[in-house]
Amino acid sequence: MMSKRLSYLTWDQYFMSVAKVSALRSKDPNTQVGACIVNDRQQIIATGYNGLPRLLDDDNYPWARTGKFLETKYPYIVHAELNAILSATVKLENSVIYVSLFPCNECAKAIIQSGIQTIIYEEDKYENTENNIAAKRMLGDANVVLKKLAFSEITIKV
Length: 158
Fold this sequence. Notes:
It is a single chain. The chain is α/β, with parallel strands linked by helices. The protein is built from 4 helices and 5 strands, in the order H-E-E-H-E-H-E-H-E. Helix 3 packs parallel to helix 4.
């Protein structure tokens, strides 16, 4: 009797891969972030990436990180987490969000408000910044589970 293949992706690896592929849609020249929201039946509810809101032309807005506020990307970009939350067509209570970068304090508020119960993230490059501390404080007080995924490079075999 033949046994099953042993080198398949775990659910966490699979959904983080979807988040990372979503990040590839971002046109941001510096930072590409992806998100994938999953329900308790292991079904993808929504995906998102950091980019401009719908209907806005990417060529008509700045992508700079520094300079005068209105000449940078920051007042215009929707973060991956919020993009996924706004794209969902079902309620998000008790769902899990996979993100390639730990959420900022603004996204933490949206995650809590939407009812997402678990955040699985890959990178926390802003750890110990005031924004990050505020996000973790709110998420902790809301009992949102935080899990850092030690994600290793995976070769996809077809």
